[in-house]
Amino acid sequence: MLKKFFFFWVNYVINNWQQLWRYGLVGLSSAIIDFGILYLLTEALGFHYLWSATISFIVAASYNYYLNKTWTFKAGGKLSKQVSIFLLIAGSGVLLNNLILYLLVEQAHWWYIYAKIIATGIVTIGNFIGNKYLTFKT
User: 125 falls in which pLDDT band (50, 70, 90)?
Assistant: First the structure.
């Protein structure tokens, strides 16, 4: 079973490497925007880290949507339907992101940037799957 699962993912990566590479570049640039705004709002402007995280996530997700639509997935389709699905996925993502941040900062007493790294890793996986198979499905 584990061998079958491993070969499934190896085959998937081989067949989708260009799309995964583009998604990774878009994701990296989105993360830079997300972390930059989070840090700026929290440290320079004194916002609570959860408000900062919400604002930075929305800005980065909007940027991410545009580049993934036009460059990564090259998706056509009805814009209103795509945006609706994207907003549901992004909304779920921001809720999960903030829950992880809250738990790691308030309960485990981590620095909010370290918590954001963990949250970003987890949320990115769900966002990729949701956007590939729901938002930008061809």
Answer: confident
Report the alpha-carbon distance of residue 65 to residue 26 in Å, rounded. 9
Can you spell out the DSSP letters for 30-42? HHHHHHHHHHIII
Confidence (pTM): 0.81
Tokens of 74: 């090259």
Residues 6+ apart with CB under 8 A from 106: none
Rounded to 5 degrees, what are φ and ψ at 115? -65, -35
Which residues, other chains included, contact 127 with Cβ-Cβ below 8 Å and sequence gap of 6+?
64, 89, 90, 93
pLDDT confidence bin for 51, thresholds 50/70/90: very high
Structure tokens at 32: 């830079």
